[in-house]
Each structure stands twice: as structure tokens, then as C-alpha cells.
Specification:
The chain is built from four helices and no strands. By secondary structure, it is an all-alpha fold. The chain has a single domain, classed as Four Helix Bundle (Hemerythrin (Met), subunit A), CATH 1.20.120. The longest helix has 32 residues. It is elongated. The chain starts with 13 loop residues before the first helix and ends with a helix.
Length: 134
């Protein structure tokens, strides 16, 4: 089952929207590979890509939020840090031969992405719009 990108997740911030879409694409590819029973090395590489994409995206968001003095930045940073901790733990368990971890990542990421964009990122968009910054 595909992790569907939907325009309702558009924030209006081009780079953020592009990175969100990239994350959805990586999660979709990961789900496909796991369902196909792809080689463990290929899946491991994609899990590493997912972590790297997440780190890059979070850094982008946090820099943008800091630039405009977003008051909820500390909470947003904490959410990102928690997510990265979870991703690193899942990757570590996968590397320790826990194949089931790879099966869990797409579902975990899909839920987290949808919730985080809808709740966390749109709070930032509301802040920007109130100040005519987007």
C-alpha cells in the first residue's frame, strides 16, 4: 500500500514541500522493497537514506524557523530529535538482523509524517501567514 502524498500536506514553503514529498517517496520505495523481499543490503541503504533525508529536512525546517523567530521552535526541535532517535534505533536494530524493523519503518514513518506535517508544520505556516511571511 502506497504512502500517498496529498496536496493537503502542502505548506506553501517550496523547499519544505519538496523535502516532505521526498520523504514520502523514500518511505514508499522502502515499503515496496520490503514487500518484494529485496536484498537486505539494498533495504539497509534505503533506511540510511531515509535517516539522511530526515536529518536534512529537519535542519532546513529548523533554520527557517529560527530565521523568523518562531516561538514554538524548541518544541519542534524536540519532536525532530525524538523522531531521529527513533529512526536511528530502528536502523540499529535492522543492522543487528532484526528484519521485522524494516517492516515497521514505512508504517511508522507514514503515521509520523502525516501527524507532524498536519500538526507541527502547519502551526508554523499559521505563524508565517499571520505575519505575512508566506
Amino acid at each position: 500500500m502506497e504512502v500517498a502524498w496529498n496536496t493537503r500536506y502542502n505548506t506553501g514553503i517550496e523547499i519544505v514541500d519538496e523535502q516532505h514529498q521526498e520523504l514520502f517517496q523514500v518511505v514508499n520505495r522502502l515499503r515496496e522493497l520490503v514487500q518484494e523481499g529485496a536484498d537486505r543490503g539494498v533495504i539497509g541503504t534505503l533506511l540510511e537514506d531515509l535517516v539522511a533525508c530526515s536529518e536534512r529536512h529537519f535542519a532546513t525546517e529548523e533554520a527557517f524557523m529560527a530565521k523568523v523567530a518562531y516561538p514554538d521552535l524548541p518544541q519542534h526541535v524536540a519532536e525532530h530529535a525524538s523522531m531521529l532517535t527513533s529512526l536511528h534505533e530502528l536502523l540499529g536494530k535492522f543492522r543487528e538482523s532484526h528484519w521485522a524493523m524494516a517492516l515497521m519503518v514505512p508504517t511508522f514513518m507514514e503515521g509520523w509524517l502525516k501527524h507532524h506535517i498536519s500538526d507541527g508544520d502547519f502551526g508554523f505556516v499559521t505563524f508565517l501567514k499571520a505575519r505575512n511571511l508566506v
